């Protein structure tokens, strides 16, 4: 059954293209990908990302459990704030990229990808049952994906919009820090976070979902629709645009961010003690806290000793052409890798992409050739982001 977010009916009425993504029927664009992309880079846009997965972990053993099943140090951030962390399989490959918020009182909220929450739920519950075979575990795991609304407001004007709506300056929050706020009597969690490279904030709250798989929980999404329309109304003076998944993808790629299923994944290779793709290959070392035990750590230590074989790299086209997932990458006529994400940058007007290549080529300034429609096209590796961070992005010079 195709899944739908709370205010799907609004999107169906207002979006020009709606189609299935990761099992969810979602808006791809409302006006055009380019227009929505540039609205976020230069002003502000709003995304409905309620298809993202959410889990609540409660109990005295919640922290210790999360420390074991994720790679980063969940104990470090105070309430209420989040940690970017990874869930790995036992052979070191990425099961998903997640955020874990310390909500206080032995309660944590994990935000995960829309196409990973079902397998993560099975994974976490299998580990929990295994532990409980040998002793008591004070832990409750609740899947809140279909109940939770999540809106993402992104762009240089998102800060002004947060001031207008909530009377707060998001720049007073560190990245992934959250705050409990209220809008017209509706309580929600606001986090300084996003997936576009721009400054921004995201809100989380529960509401009825007319498309909830549990019929007893279905109802009209009055809160979700009110908040969505209030943000659009308040953002009119800043030129706010509703933006779909098309712009969300081009924005994250310009920022150089990985996408689960493209850059990060578990290939489930047979007869090997190290799977692919690992965080070492995907340049996600910063999310590894080596001073604790976590699932997949042993495999990563082995991989560091043996060598990576291939690694992620960013590139921009020199010749005209748009790289796409699956295109072959060459250097000096040698096949060295494959594109995992690619697009035409709406901001720069050139082709950009991410690829996995042999490790010796995974550094900035290397000339490559991308096979596009059977013809080699020149490209060069670069350090992300693709745009000038002094002019664009969360830390632009104002």
UniProtKB/TrEMBL annotation:
Keywords in alphabetical order: Aminotransferase, Transferase
Q: Which gene encodes it?
A: gcvT
Q: What protein name is recorded for this chain?
A: Probable aminomethyltransferase
GO MF annotations in UniProt:
aminomethyltransferase activity; transaminase activity
Q: How does it assemble?
A: The glycine cleavage system is composed of four proteins: P, T, L and H.
Q: Which organism is it from?
A: Thermococcus radiotolerans
Cite the source lineage: Archaea, Methanobacteriati, Methanobacteriota, Thermococci, Thermococcales
Task: Report domain GCVT N-terminal positions.
Answer: 8-292
Tell me which NCBIfam families the record gives: gcvT, PRK00389.1
Q: Which family does it belong to?
A: Belongs to the GcvT family.
Residues bound to substrate are: 202
The enzyme's first-digit EC class, named in words, is: transferase
Name a biological process GO annotation.
glycine decarboxylation via glycine cleavage system
User: What are the Aminomethyltransferase C-terminal domain coordinates in residue numbering?
Assistant: 310-388
EC assignment: the record states 2.1.2.10
Q: What is the purpose of this protein?
A: The glycine cleavage system catalyzes the degradation of glycine.
| Recorded catalytic activity of this chain's protein | N(6)-[(R)-S(8)-aminomethyldihydrolipoyl]-L-lysyl-[protein] + (6S)-5,6,7,8-tetrahydrofolate = N(6)-[(R)-dihydrolipoyl]-L-lysyl-[protein] + (6R)-5,10-methylene-5,6,7,8-tetrahydrofolate + NH4(+)
Give the matching InterPro entries: GcvT (IPR006223), GcvT/YgfZ/DmdA (IPR028896), GcvT/YgfZ_C (IPR029043), GcvT_bac (IPR022903), GcvT_C (IPR013977), GCVT_N (IPR006222), TrmE/GcvT-like (IPR027266)
Gene Ontology CC annotations of this record: glycine cleavage complex
